[in-house]
Amino acid sequence: MTYLIKGARVLGGDPADLLLADGRIAAIGDRLSATGATVVDAGGLVALPGLVDLHTHLREPGREDAETVETGSRAAALGGFTAVHAMANTDPVADTAGVVEQVWRLGRQAGLVDVVPVGAVTVGLRGERLAELGAMADSAARVRVFSDDGHCVADPALMRRALEYVKALDGVVAQHAEEPRLTAGAQMNEGHRSARLGLTGWPAAAEEAVIARDVLLAQHVGARLHVCHVSTAGSVEILRWAKSRGVQVTAEVTPHHLLLTEACAETYDPVFKVNPPLRTDADVEALRAGLADGTIDAVATDHAPHAVEDKESEWAQARPGMLGLEQALSIVVETLVEPGLLDWAGVADRMSVRPAAIGRLDGRGLQAHGRPLAPGEPANLLLLDPAARATVDPAALASRSRNSPYAGRELPGRVVATFLRGVPTVLDGKAVR
Amino acid sequence: MKRHLLEAADLDRADATLVLDTAAQIDQALAGREVKKLPTLRGRTVVNLFYEDSTRTRISFELAAKRLSADVINFSAKGSSVSKGESLKDTALTLEAMGADAIVVRHSASGAPHRLANWVRGSVVNAGDGTHEHPTQALLDAYTIRHRLGRLDGVRVAIVGDVLHSRVARSNVWLLTTLGAEVTLVAPPTLLPVGVGSWPVGVSYDLDAVLPKADAVMMLRVQAERMNASFFPSAREYSRRYGLDARRMAALPDEAIVMHPGPMNRGMEIAADVADSVRSTIVEQVGNGVSVRMAVLYLLLGGSTR
User: Fold this and answer.
1) What SS3 state is found at A50?
2) Out of B81, B109, B197, closest to residue A315 by CB
3) A41-55, B42-56, B150-164: the lowest-pLDDT one
4) CATH superfamily to which A50-367 belongs
5) pLDDT at B302
6) Which annotated residues bind L-aspartate (chain B) (predicted)?
7) Quick one: which of A100, A237, B230, B286 has the most CB atoms within 10 Å?
């Protein structure tokens, strides 16, 4: 199938036509024509490379009532993603070649995005001994990112071994940085609001201390480290310092940490409960600046669907996490593009190029992601209407869950179309299937 | 008054004063009466929904509702709603269907009354939620101070002990400052919340320095299990540094009163002879609790049918 996209502004540049054929971008130019091609009018739309998420919870296997690989894939496609990393905290945990291959196969069957399984670092996410990382790397799922996300690899000796071991796999450990002894029972950011609300505080130092430790370990053993969902200004400072010293560290920030603050907790509505917690205005500002200057490499959604009964409860009893795939790009437009902190090339870099490189998805022929929009490259791209604004309605989301913290909020930018290897997964803002 | 009483921080000076004045009127109306009962809430239903054991708070609310002639139902859900299998929301909808006009809720989770208020049409009264607030306790404390000292404006109140985990302390901080009192929190730094600096209160680590300038000193219960989490080294050391004994009590100004929300740990935060002294208002607080809770129920339910 051949598609001719007319008048798209590639990375916000001058309007151009893109011809997609045989899974690749066949040509980019003025007034292209192709007989038999389906024409897509992209006047006024911005073309970006297909987004890559380093951090998605698809919940399958185990909690198919909250999300499945298929429903999560559809949400991802609607958000402009062409690849998502599926986190390992499923039931059973993705700590064997069998489970990661199952998730990978479900992703292929859904066929809406490339589902790239993340492997657990430790058996059962228990933080006691290494899972068979090599077997997962060698499996059909080709795992390169390993994470106990939801739990910190808190034992420093075990973390050191994990960092060292995955060097042989060209892998990376993605750390959920949270010193568990400092966050026992924690419910929200520790500060004047937690004091007033009587919710146990999650101190910024519990994140920063682990990041500081881990960058030192990564430097010592010469390994790659990726830091999940950085949430504090202090973490950004530590990352900036580590990068200046040449440590091979990368980091991600979530859309919700770029937009929302701990003030949301004042409603006691657990839709705003998330781990790490929403922080302060100053943290939000530092995260935006860190993403803009490249200290933070990537936006990653931490899309975390939860069934209604796991959120419609007392704050302390609710599960942490919020939906993110379908609004991620809009939030980046709102918090970075519109204020002038990031241009469209910057958005492509932080949401596609760098996350693909971190996950080692960037160099595999037609299966690659995060490649430039250029002739010969895989045709993974999205078309965004930057002028559109829409109010978020959780009931209208493709995700099986409804725990969006953005309900009722008007956000800019609408993904009009998404193409995965030249085939549309989204057209006219709707999933093709 | 708003429809619910969820936190003392919600009360402005006029509302808080109205509660205290109403409680005083109720006290006067019932003084010397043989039948201590008013017909005001006849036909109305008050549910005491208690997810935590708290006999004294529950019977205080029960007595308050009964003295107003309301029908009272005690719904004791020991442990968490989740462990029982029924969610807070389902319990709320059940009580709603049964026609509860007011739900008095005690819960171990901060904010549970706020959640409940989203799901029911009746009034919700917070009878203590986690480490957040216990607004009727603060109202009865304010009532007691005003009754004993004749005013609240400019009264210097020291709140001593485990502020970090205390809903009583939080409610008193907001209510007493709203009513013009000057509050000083006294505790070891481990038992003060990070961020306490933004509260409209003074903070001290030194009880002896604060006592000579206190018109009322409110001792908070310190739970023994805090000791095991290294909030302080030992019960004895805590008691030595932050307990109120007769020697320390002597440093108080002549008219100053000693308060405790109960239940007390005699010998820990308060010595027995202090608790039983003429300065102590501890028993009086219990009695005032009934009057203040009557006032709250009366004002929220308005005495008229919905």
Assistant:
1) coil
2) B109
3) B42-56
4) Metal-dependent hydrolases (3.20.20.140)
5) 81
6) 84, 167, 221
7) A100
CA A155 to chain centre: 26
Q: Nearest Cα to A365, choosing from A379, A384, A348?
A: A379
CB contact under 8 A, A195 and B110: no
**Which chain A residue's Cα is nearest to B111?**
A268
* Residue ranges of chain A assigned to CATH 3.20.20.140: 50-367
Q: Which of B87, B193, B199 is facing A313, going by the closest CB pair? A: B87
pLDDT for res B80: 46
Q: Are A121 and A131 in contact (CB under 8 A)?
A: yes
pLDDT given at position B304: 44
Single-letter amino acid, residue B40: T
Q: Which two tokens stand for residue B78?
A: 């020991």
Domains B8-133+286-301 and B135-284 share a fold: yes
Contact A315 B193 (CB under 8 A): no
Q: Give tens-digit pLDDT for A85-105.
A: 999 999 999 999 999 999 999
Q: B230 pLDDT exceeds 60? A: yes
Q: Which top CATH class is A3-46+376-431?
A: mainly beta
Q: What are residue B33's phi and psi, to 5 degrees?
A: -75, 145
Question: Where are the domain boundaries for CATH 2.30.40.10 in chain A?
Answer: 3-46+376-431
Do residues A56 and A84 touch, judged by C-beta distance below 8 A?
A: yes
What's the pLDDT tens digit per position in A317-329? 999 999 999 999 9
A275 labeled binding residue:
yes
Chain B residues with CB inside 8 Å of A187's CB? 110
Is the pLDDT at B83 greater than 80, yes or no?
Answer: no
Give the pLDDT confidence of B157-172 residue by residue, as tens digits. 999 999 999 999 999 9
Q: Which residues of B touch A190 (CB under 8 A)?
A: 194-195
Query: Would you give the DSSP letter of residue A168?
Result: G
Determine the pLDDT at residue A364.
74
Extents of the domains making up chain B: 8-133+286-301, 135-284
**CA-based nearest distance A178→chain B, Å:** 19
Closest residue in A to B174 (Cα–Cα) = A196
pLDDT tens per residue, range B294-303: 999 999 998 5
Contact residues, chain A to chain B, C-beta under 8 Å: 187, 190-201, 203, 267-269, 309, 312-317
| DSSP structure class, residue A378 | B
Q: For residue A189, give the H/E element and its range.
A: strand A188-189
CA angle A218, A223, A227 (to 5 degrees): 60
Q: Which CATH number fits domain B135-284: 3.40.50.1370, 3.40.50.2000, 3.40.630.30, 3.30.1330.60?
A: 3.40.50.1370
The overall average pLDDT reported for chain B is 93
Closest approach of B171 to chain A, Cα-based (Å) = 10
Check residue B223 and give its pLDDT. 82
Contacts of A200 in chain B (CB under 8 A): 131
Tell me which residues of chain B have a C-beta less than 8 Å from any C-beta of chain A. Answer: 9, 80-82, 87-89, 107-112, 114-115, 129-133, 167, 170, 193-199
B195·A190 Cβ contact <8 A: yes
pLDDT, mean of residues B152-157 = 98
Q: How far is CA B14 from CA A384, B168, B179, in A?
A: 53, 21, 9
Residues of B carrying an active site annotation: 56-57, 84, 106, 134
Tell me which residues of A are annotated as active site.
302
Q: Which CATH architecture has domain B8-133+286-301?
A: 3-Layer(aba) Sandwich (3.40)
Distances (CA, A) of A341 to A157, A159, A347: 39, 35, 10
